Amino acid sequence: MRRVIEDLIEKRKTRRDELKASLNDLAAAVSKPGLFKKNEAEIQANVSRFQEALELFITAQDKEWDAYASNHSTTVFKSLQWKIEKLEAEYSNLKTLLVHFAQLENRLDRLLESLDGKAAPETTAELRSLKEQLSPIQYADFEKRFRGSREEISLRLAKYLPLFAGRREILDVGCGRGEFLTLLKNNGQQALGLDLSDSMLEEAHAQGLDCAKADALQFLKNRPAASLDGIFSSQVIEHFQPDYLRRVISEAFRVLRPGAILLLETINPLSVFALSRIYFLDPTHHSPLHPEYMRYLLENSGFSSVEILYGAEPMAEKLEELAPTDPLARPFNVNVDRLNQLLFSACEYAVKGIRP
């Protein structure tokens, strides 16, 4: 492609020189004093030559621009193809892992059925306990591999810490390994975490964090009204059923004190990259949540000053633009910007509301 473009550049230069020459000849013919009638044929010939040279120059320029666009588009689509192939490979690995895990659970089920009434109660109880522990252990391993290390998550969540400054009692729904609890504790704030994963809670307890195994909705229902200064949750609400999520937000409004904050972070479905690389990677996700839908839920539950806070965009993944000096830069880059906005918007957002 580069050789084609170089040849087109040379042809365009040749046509440009021809155009200049015809303009010079035309100017010389027209500038002869009082001889328009005598030079009419010469002028007409020069005008025709100028028109032909102009058309050839424009054609050469168009072909060169087309070649530039084609070359850049090829690079863009090759980059996209590589990313798609990488996603397909990762999805295939995950699918294989889930199939093996499901087969293991089925074998345990059949083993328990075959032992029903035949084995000692202690043996059966131990096997049932093992089966119940498989899912949270598997999910903990899944999170370690795909969500990031404790350090990476802490660094990402630290941006929310100033929003909870000066608040005393804070609840972290779905605290996991306790990254945000640790940030709050180091900041001298009192915080309690909730999670359903025994293995996650074990890691949090090992850090000396205050956390408990509890269902979020049930915990909030049992909590006294106006008893919390803040509620936080990171990438948990996409696991909730719609009605369950609505009831959690309603109960959150009840248990928060006036002026307290509710902040719920989730994956941004307006980013194709986030959907394909993050959301669909986790089979336990229930449904993606549109930012404006979450705004509506909070406002409808009584929260005020509702805001959507977008995270960082995946800059390294974005499609490259043409250099500003390139003749095609402006129209091409406008379309690249639109495509980047669709494909590579922020991977996550948080909806924030204040209890009046």
Question: What report would you give on this structure?
Answer:
With 356 residues, the chain is an alpha/beta fold. The chain folds into three domains: 2-78; 88-146; 150-354, Rossmann fold (3-Layer(aba) Sandwich), CATH 3.40.50. The chain has eleven helices and seven strands. The protein has helices spanning 2-30, 40-115, 121-146, 150-157, 179-186, 198-206, 216-222, 242-255, 272-279, 291-300, 329-343, and strands at 169-173, 190-195, 211-213, 228-234, 256-267, 304-310, 348-354. It has a seven-stranded mixed sheet with strand order 3-2-1-4-5-7-6, with helices on both faces. The longest helix is centred in the first third of the chain and has 76 residues, at 40-115. The protein starts with a helix and ends with a strand.
**Superfamily at the CATH H level of the largest domain?**
Vaccinia Virus protein VP39
What would you call the shape?
elongated
Structural class: alpha/beta
Quick check: average pLDDT?
79
CATH architecture descriptor of the largest domain: 3-Layer(aba) Sandwich
CATH C-level class of the largest domain is Alpha Beta
Helix and strand sequence: HHHHEHEHEHEHEHHEHE
Compute the number of structural domains.
3
Instruction: Give start-end ranges of low-pLDDT stretches.
Output: none
Q: Specify the biggest β-sheet.
A: 7 strands, mixed
The helical percent reads: 55-70%
Strand order of the largest sheet: 3-2-1-4-5-7-6
